[in-house]
Each structure stands twice: as structure tokens, then as C-alpha cells.
Design a protein that fits this description.
single chain; mainly beta; four-stranded antiparallel β-sheet; 1 helix; 50% strand
């Protein structure tokens, strides 16, 4: 990886002596952000969200060509005029999901890691993890009543990437 042109961040869960990747985010110097949901047991699945420098945003589940785009939106450009916060990707996270993916964390592949303890996933309600672009001084747009378990701000580029692990409010 060329550390001057892009940064890769892992969202990984510590399960006893293992650290498993649940999601990873790639950020380029020009502001493009890609969030990937690894599926090493099925290479046809390349689940990811793309947030492009011109503000185009979409989520895809298979292949990298122009097909299979869902949730296509035009968002604000992630440049010096960026304001507030924008979601990149958000997922429910469970220990069984992380174990089924089974992708071990390799520190040589990532610039930094947002490490989650398996114990943090043991709650009464759903636990979600989100990656967001945020303006300094702002937080991600979480559901009302969410309880933040932990959060990490990555300041390599503007706007910042913020990873948040949170518990959904009880109904």
C-alpha cells in the first residue's frame, strides 16, 4: 500500500487471542472513501459502499462494474466545503457474524484499526458499527437514543472518518 496516496482502516473484533476483520475502509488523498464488507469464502460477493470525490454514493453487493448498485445518492463532496456529517456504511455486528467471516487482521495491510472487544457485542439490543465522514467538532448522525460504546476519529484527511460502535435504543 502506498501510504502517501491512500489509507486503509480496519474495523476488527478481538475474540480471545484472535483479531478478526469485520469491515474495512479505504480513503484516498482526493477524498474518495470505500467501505468493504469482506466475504473471503465467496469471492463473487464484493459488498461495499462507495463515496466518490464528486459526491456520488452507492452500495453494491457483487462485482465492481456498473451493475448491482443500490442506494444510489448524490451527497455533498468530501472537500474543503464539507459540512456536518455523512454516513458511509453502517452494519449490525455480532460475534457470530465476525467469526463466520473469519478474516484475520493483518497489521501490514492497514494503516490503523478500530478494535472492538467481543464483550462489547454482548448487549440486550442490537449493536451497530458505522463509518462516517464528519467535519471537526461534529459527530455522526446516529439514531435517537443510541448509546455510544466506543468511537475513533481518524484525522489523516479532511473530512475526518469516524468509526462508532453503538447500541440501539430499546423499544
Amino acid at each position: 500500500m502506498n501510504s502517501t496516496s491512500e489509507r486503509k482502516y480496519s474495523i476488527a473484533v478481538r475474540d480471545e487471542d484472535n483479531l478478526f476483520v469485520f469491515m474495512w475502509v479505504k480513503r484516498s488523498m482526493i477524498g474518495e472513501v470505500y467501505a468493504f464488507m469482506p466475504r473471503p469464502h465467496d469471492p463473487s460477493i464484493i459488498a461495499h459502499a462507495s463515496y466518490h470525490a464528486d459526491g456520488r454514493y452507492h452500495v453494491k453487493s457483487h462485482n465492481m462494474d456498473g451493475r448491482n448498485k443500490i442506494m444510489y445518492q448524490q451527497k455533498q463532496k468530501p472537500d474543503q466545503n464539507f459540512i456536518g456529517a455523512e454516513h458511509v456504511l453502517e452494519q449490525t455486528i455480532t460475534l457470530s457474524n465476525v467469526r463466520s467471516i473469519g478474516m484475520k487482521y493483518n497489521p501490514s495491510q492497514f494503516y490503523d484499526v478500530f478494535e472492538i472487544s467481543a464483550k462489547e457485542l454482548e448487549t440486550k439490543t442490537y449493536v451497530r458499527v458505522t463509518s462516517d465522514l464528519v467535519l471537526p467538532g461534529h459527530g455522526p448522525n446516529l439514531v435517537p437514543g443510541a448509546r455510544v460504546i466506543q468511537q475513533k476519529e481518524c484525522r489523516s484527511y479532511f473530512p475526518y472518518i469516524v468509526f462508532t460502535l453503538y447500541e440501539m435504543p430499546e423499544c
